[in-house]
Design goal:
single chain; 246 residues; alpha/beta; TIM Barrel; two-stranded antiparallel ribbon; 8 helices; 37% helix; globular
Length: 246
Amino acid sequence: MSSILEICAGSLASCLAAQAGGADRVELCDNLGEGGTTPSYGVLATARDKMEIKLHAIIRPRGGDFLYTELEFEAMAHDVEACRRLGLDGVVLGLLTADGDVDLARTRRLVALAGPMAVTFHRAFDMAREPAQALEDVIAAGCVRLLSSGQAATAPQGAALLAALRGQAGERLAVMPGAGVRAENIAELAAVSGCREFHASARGAAASAMRYRRDGVSMGAAGDEFAREETLTAKVRALRAALDGV
């Protein structure tokens, strides 16, 4: 079975770059600096119109932890329904309890709303207190995929746990390593973890086209409106080539 490459894209341009580079699937996010939040309806609709490969969207109403209020959960439910109406292929979500367990009841409710879209449980899992039980809860909720770094800073560092999770899941769920996945380490990560799906951002610096630039004014905490990162087609192609060589 050939391996699957998913690219985490933070913009419409990054979606198209991922597609051009040979990605199998895109996870579309806003605010990647905060770990990703739900993109706007307009961005999702435009992406669905332009994309030929599978398109998933993160369902996350804010940055920070994964303990959501009822108001935030209501917003997440509306976003899942919007993605379904737009014809997306999947959604990516993760909810925890205050004690660090998977919020099984509310995850099940979102999975039911998502049907027939595929549901991936994202790296909220990496903040769970007991990974083996958390995996069972993710499976019980009806998710078909787990995105994880193996509860480490990067997936290569967490490869041993990723291998254990893959073995525990068997055919019940796909374990997809993500965080710090690059062309230089993806082959070794595949060998150690035994996983067949991989998640990367393949980002690099993208220059602003603005000629006039006012100094001393910033629209946000980052402080530089003329510097951003986008998924680069060349980096996606390098990941694709490395993965195809496994």
